[in-house]
């Protein structure tokens, strides 16, 4: 698919330039406000709508070696964590440009690799101070608030970003759902500011707030005045404003503690809804479905407050999606059991089977006449000479189909679930005999039905006996479908349930077929964010806080290298030649600054994408201002933490809350974010070291301009 082209200078590192070009195509996917793209096929002129990095790289024709490496890196990140791919792609581009600039300045490749690697490792160690522990979020599941009402629906935003209400990004509830939270202000679906408990508040703070007056009127009036302006103004940011001389330490249990003249206060996350809102990153409608799925699992597990000895664990392997394009969006919901689609011609059969318990057989592989399991070895002494004759094949399949029906009739089986493909002829004959056969069923679904119904999975239908057959399964039509939608898709949704089954299906619908894939991707991204956060029992302070700290930390390291010379890098390289040691002294600050510039570009693009600034240059000026404040504070990590503790948030909306501290926080998951950084830098350094001949300047011989430049088509 062709999207754009970029001039490639053959006198500079081609591989790094290609990485930068590929990464440039996905910059609009960074942040909570994403812009979809149409990818157009140049040959057949067909187009596809994509809204994620993964779908983008699937659609692009990445035939070069560098393109393949980039795709593999993004796929590895997505297959493992289902999130962090946009960050990975952007940093690949930013750090490719940094490495290319290092080469242009004459920095040795070995030094680029060493300093960049050590710089990133130092950043990873530094941001540990921004981790927030998660404690007992399921303890109050019964009485805690849910996403069920509009009052709890708030946009997952970036704390240091704001946009006044005059920009008109959100007009009504429909816009909020469709545009995926384009406003950076905290809004409920009803247009009112969110009233949700504060995450980082100690008990004494909560009690004190109950007896204190409202926010000072002068501050409130100032905030209200700012919202009337159409121009974006960022003030009083939680990230980027200085406060008093409070200091922060990280206790052994991971709790962030603030040290001041007053009694020390501890901060942690112990509320499920607050965690979900913080991890939604603009995908609130998807996170709402995730919340409902978690609560269904909680109920299915039989967990009751005060009566459970085993803590509840969110099992993402027992959650499945069923996508129904062409259906109204209001049909999207979460249901217990397994929902799948079958041909609309099965309507009469489903109506006859519903409202009665039926018996089920579970087949692990394909349900076809010629299927053999992977370990099957055909006898060498037998040779089939008539296998190619269609008449013989048809006769053989008919005999096999009749035998399968005999087995199902013998054990009174009306439902067959197969993990693989199913013979079309068998489906037809089973339908005629009032038996439902469903293929391509997920392995976890098979296991759930085996546990709940008592069935034992078999490889071949001939292995079925009475002990293998499950019972108590019920089949029903999921819900009534509008006739126009049913005629359009020629399919119907059915629900399979049995008592005690640990299975939840999330139904995703949209009248626009092109949006269904995006909705499914967004749902799984939110689900895996929550799953990973609960698994690790910790999150990062989000909204760019971590990246800002990395930027500030690298700049300090670069300045220290300039001031201390060899002393500042004596521990970096050992037993090296004097030439290399002098190169480290000379070039280390340059490499660190260029590496830090990648974080600067990341934050600038983030601000620009969210419409807070008219240009990335303007956003960069804002970032530089707060970088200076963080440096002057003497402790950038304390500076960021102090901003999160402030009540005068820079997130404004048209109806300022009397308690601004109630605005929800934003969180990032720890391991996926760090792994995205590592994968990005590893890919850049791999491409950097693959070319043995790198031209960083003009040669003595003149190079034809047409030969020195080429076009890279994406």
TrEMBL record:
GO biological process, one term: photoreceptor cell maintenance
GO molecular function: ATP binding
InterPro entries tied to this protein: BBS12 (IPR042984), Cpn60/GroEL/TCP-1 (IPR002423), GroEL-like_apical_dom_sf (IPR027409), GROEL-like_equatorial_sf (IPR027413), TCP-1-like_intermed_sf (IPR027410)
GO CC list: chaperonin-containing T-complex
A Pfam family the protein falls into: Cpn60_TCP1
Designated name of the protein: Bardet-Biedl syndrome 12 protein
Naturally occurring in which organism (per UniProt): Neophocaena asiaeorientalis asiaeorientalis (Yangtze finless porpoise)
